[in-house]
Amino acid sequence: MTDDSSGSKSPAWQRLRAVARGRAAIALLVAGCVGLVGLAVTGQASVPPGLQFVQVGHWVYNSASQSAFHVDGSTGQVDARASVPGAEQGSQVVQGERSGYVVERSRITEFSKSTLSVENSVAPPAAERPVVLEVAGGPYLVYRNAGRVARLGDPTATVPAGGPLSMPVATSDGTVWLHRIDTGSICQLSRDATRLACPAELPKGHGGALAVVGDRAVVIDTTADTLHTISGDGLGGSAEIGLKLPPTAQVANSAVDGRLAVVDPDRKQLHLIDTAGLEKNGPTARPVSVDLPKEGKIAGPVAASHVVMVVDETRHEVLTYDSKGQLKSSKKLPENGEPPRPALGEDDRIYVDTSDGSRVLVVDGEDGSAAEVSIDDAARNGTADEATTEDPPDSEPLVPGVLSDVVAAATPPGAPRNVKAVAGDGSATVTWGAAANNGARITRYRLSWSGGSTTVDGSASSATVSGLTNGKSYVITVTAENSAGRGSGASAKAVVPGRAAEAPKVTAKAGADGRVSVTWTEPERHGAELVHYLVSASGKGEREVSGQSAEFQGITGTTTITVRAVTRYGPSGSPVLKGNPGKQSVTVPSGPPTVEITGVRGDGNNRLIVSVNADAKGSSATCEARFMGFFPSSAPCDGPSEIVINNVTWFGTIKITATITTPLGQATDTWTGQPG
């Protein structure tokens, strides 16, 4: 330790904080608006109001020396050491504004960053390795399987999420975003809040992953392959991502130069997806795809400001790429147990620890270069400052309940989800999904629109609004209320009440030349004004007709004619309603006919009955039968038919001729034999 100007001792961490403040001031003078990035899965962010405390560097737990060491990423030096005996290998270290925390599966040990001495130990809310978030108001530990979020900052709390979670993200204001794997709910935990609000959800059965783009939370729907913004009113704008993702896709914490990195572990590929499409409802550039090592087990990706990093866990190799997919660096770490563990520091560097804390790889977020720091060497050489006090005090016994669930005062509910409205005759039926109650039972839902409002019980999920004016456009908004007040509203798309016209009666007639003539009756319009009719034939599209007849040409085979009235309530320009469809099918003649004699019999009254199978090919047809070339007799025919020849007598073998005639031609068949 060195003396300050007054001759008193200055702890190492105070010097480190002074350096941090100086660097932050210089950064503000030079860049004006430097992005601050949170640990592990947070996104790039603007400088918070009032210049929130910036966490400098990275802490790592070294098993051999039973200590937590601080690495200054800008110099590659180890500059502080806190003795935390008894922690298990692979323990994570996370820092807040004043304290650091060594996180094990069985306990969380707090040490002061000022005195570098242990202050307390508490029991974690779940026996699993959490995801770490160093953000304003935190740090946070997210226990994904247990569905719990522990905040180690002030106020300390554990917040239940209610189910398993995908990888969380956080925005610069300290809001943590969570995605429930089982229900699809997307929830937020605001800074200092003790309860979740869940404003959005993915469709049932859809997988998803969260990220941050432009300091806004977004979600990739890995089932529909779309990217959505998230707001307090639910899912916002969306864009197709331009490729098919598997359910196992791993999404980066944030975008890199406008592209969001996604690892496909099945195909061993890194995809860089254009995010500008969120503003234009579609991708503006094709995804960039990079082949990764085929035999490796890939983890990540983790994104800094200009590079994205993945870990080949099989080879213990760290690979960095820029937003164009160019490989920037490749660096191996020693194989000493579990795979390397990456984390993103607020200094825009990615730190990759070995499982025993013997080495740390520092990846520069600007150019992707990587430098290795030996924690073992620092421990042996004593280059890191330690606490000036004597041996650190024994940690307190585990204190169950310090991180127990907090029961906080209720707040107004969240916005109802998936609000939809369907127009009726002077009415609209509205449906919605339950709003987050935020600590108090929802007592009622309020539906409001221009000119009126109504309320329903808090257990309801639908209501019918009546007394609306047909032809007028309405936007209906639903808000939830509890004992703490009324929450924010969510609106359905505009609906126009009215009663659609009834179906007209349609008559269709086919000609032999492929023409179909159509007429229809005027339908009941229920007081609405007729705008026009929509008339269509199968495969011929739809046309607008002002009268009550139409003709189609070039029709072959069987076609269905559909007619519906389009009506409106109000003057020209008012919204229109499509009426109920009237339909009629007709077969158009398609070629020359055919005929086949299937039998000849006598009835004992000097009559022969000739059975034929006639195919008129959609036309009207006449069949004629002759006995021995004489005594012609004819009748209409189509399909199985009979022709009667009168006043004939016969003995032995006879000959019968049958002829079918249509507008498209003739056909003949003969039969020789003895009538039955």
TrEMBL record:
Entry GO MF terms: hydrolase activity, acting on glycosyl bonds
Top-level taxon in the UniProt lineage: Bacteria
CDD domains reported in the protein's UniProt record: FN3 (cd00063)
TM regions (residue ranges): 24-43
Keyword terms: Carbohydrate metabolism, Glycosidase, Hydrolase, Membrane, Polysaccharide degradation, Repeat, Transmembrane, Transmembrane helix
Gene3D superfamilies: Immunoglobulins
Region (Disordered): 321-351, 365-398
Sequence ranges assigned to domain Fibronectin type-III in this UniProt record: 412-503
One of the Pfam families matching this protein, by short name: fn3
GO terms under biological process: polysaccharide catabolic process
Alphabetized PANTHER family for the sequence: TITIN, ZORMIN, ISOFORM J
Protein name: Fibronectin type III domain-containing protein
Organism expressing this protein natively: Saccharopolyspora elongata
Lineage of source species: Bacteria, Bacillati, Actinomycetota, Actinomycetes, Pseudonocardiales
